[in-house]
Amino acid sequence: MQISYLAVRLVMTAKQEQILQAAFELFAMEGYRNTPTLKIAKRAKVSEGLIFKHYKNKHGLLTAVVDQMSVKFDEFLQPIKKENNPKEKLRIAIHFPFLIKEEAFNFWKLLYRLKWEEAYDTSRMSRPILEELTNIFLALEVESPHLEARVLYSMLEGVAMSIIRKEIPNKEALLQFLLKRYV
What we know:
The protein is 75% helix and 0% strand. By secondary structure, the protein is mainly α. It has one domain: Tetracycline Repressor, domain 2, CATH 1.10.357. The longest helix is centred in the middle third of the chain and has 25 residues.
């Protein structure tokens, strides 16, 4: 049985919230390996012992942060899941990285950092979008729908990373290019 993020937040203390927020921010900005629990404690204005009391160790804290991220990621996917028309689903998916707001950059930075730095299993976040893309390409009767889904996912992930790093001078031109190519 999966407990909703809201239910977990309701039973979480203010101190636990502070710890998770501090860990999230520091892991996103400095990396998991480069962030000692003492620094998290100082940022959260709690004792380091309280972190260990609630999360056992640094990895347990990371798991709690990723659990919250998984719920947030699922929220991002809802518009795609709710749509029935495969071409419209594809259009929504392509728009996805272009809609990332700057206040959400840390979420994405941490997600990408974990893939590289810690080799943390982020597949529970990537799997649903890959499945959605595969189903879209199956419905559109595209040759090799699994491979096409993987290629588009990789492109969109690269686009998202470039947007977060502010490397794309003309996002609208790139968006229109991708829409023309796929939709």
